[in-house]
Design a protein that fits this description.
Elements: E1 16-20, E2 24-29, E3 36-43, E4 50-54, E5 59-62, E6 68-70, E7 76-79, E8 82-87, H1 91-99, E9 105-109, H2 122-131, E10 133-139, E11 141-145, E12 149-153, E13 156-161, E14 168-175, E15 183-189, H3 192-199, E16 205-207, H4 208-216, E17 229-232, E18 235-236, H5 247-260, E19 267-274, H6 278-290, E20 295-299, H7 303-308
Parallel strand pairs: 4-9, 11-19, 14-19, 16-17
Antiparallel strand pairs: 1-10, 2-3, 3-9, 4-5, 6-7, 7-8, 11-20, 12-13, 13-19, 14-15, 17-18
The structure holds zinc ion.
Length: 309
């Protein structure tokens, strides 16, 4: 029993808001600085959303798309006019929270970057499982997309479209020169079950020749084969290989789920993305919220009514 059989396919867009049942913490290495960082996930009241708290600075940073200040290698949030009040590499934790149906949580972190752990969302999901979930008795608000919104970047694009479904459906494709990655595509309706089975364990990845450039720029100092898949041409350099043949596109879909979670509420939409990245994902949300006719905020259906419909 995985404990998920009672949940509908789009459960995270249905039912009441949820938080964690109790706090839980961990210590890990930050990917870019290579430093040790302490993190704690804690319950938060209904309507809070996800809020980061820098324990070393004493500041709160809301996990919202309009707080994203950098997105080249990872998604970085900061307070307006206070670039030091930042927290980076938030996307895998945001994906784990969204994929596990956690609406409200306070995330304390002892430095400017979250721990990378194994490079996937699975360890964050494990922490959420250990903490447990608590229903908060308040209907979820859902952001329903009403007409298509599209952004483009070179030969990549991302588009939100209306859906007949209750939650978020993803269609993601990638195309890389490195033969070990090549072209991959994935379509998935997001729910706790599909997130955990398909996306959660997919690790971040890098091409070997890019890593030297990152290191020279003082980035990826905490990166290793323990927290990233590294490919060189047609070879995967990790001795244990891939977790699934589709691990690359699955990770891009995981990043997309985490970046879209910065909308502040679950999306009722279909998202189609080709060669997505953190910058494109953030531009998609900014384009959505810049067009008041493109969306509306609705209360989610109670799960019991949705199941009977
Ligand atoms: Zn990622």
């Amino acid at each position: 029993m995985d404990g998920l059989t009672d949940l509908s396919f789009a459960d995270h867009a249905l039912g009441p808001e949820q938080t964690l049942a109790r706090p839980i913490g961990c210590v890990g290495i930050a990917l870019h600085s290579g430093r040790r960082v302490r993190m704690e996930l804690a319950p938060a009241p209904a309507g809070t959303g996800i809020v980061f708290h820098r324990t070393d600075l004493g500041v709160d940073i809301p996990a919202r798309f309009d707080r994203v200040v950098a997105s080249r290698l990872c998604t970085v949030l900061a307070l307006p006019g206070e670039p030091e009040a930042r927290v980076g590499t938030v996307e895998h934790l945001m994906a784990a929270l969204a994929g596990n149906g956690i609406d409200n949580a306070r995330i304390s972190v002892s430095g400017p970057e979250l721990p990378i752990l194994d490079g996937s969302a699975e360890p964050f999901g494990f922490l959420i499982d250990c903490a447990g979930r608590a229903s908060q008795g308040v209907p979820r608000r859902v952001i329903e997309v009403l007409h298509p919104v599209r952004v483009e970047d070179g030969d990549g694009f991302a588009e939100l479209r209306p859906t007949a479904g209750a939650g978020l459906t993803l269609s993601v494709s990638i195309a890389f020169e490195a033969a070990a990655i090549g072209r991959q595509a994935l379509t998935l309706t997001l729910g706790r079950r599909s997130f955990r089975r398909t996306l959660a364990a997919a690790r971040t990845f890098a091409v070997a020749h890019e890593i030297e450039a990152l290191r020279a720029a003082g980035l990826a100092l905490g990166g290793s084969l323990d927290n990233a898949v590294v490919v060189d041409g047609d070879r995967v350099l990790n001795p244990a290989g891939l977790r699934s043949p589709q691990e690359f596109v699955r990770h891009k879909a995981l990043d997309l789920v985490g970046d879209l979670a910065l909308a502040g509420a679950p999306l009722r939409a279909s998202v189609v993305a080709h060669r997505p990245g953190h910058a494109l994902n953030n531009r998609l949300l900014r384009a959505l919220f810049a067009d008041a006719s493109a969306y509306r905020v609705v209360e989610s259906m109670p799960e019991s009514i949705a199941a009977a419909a």
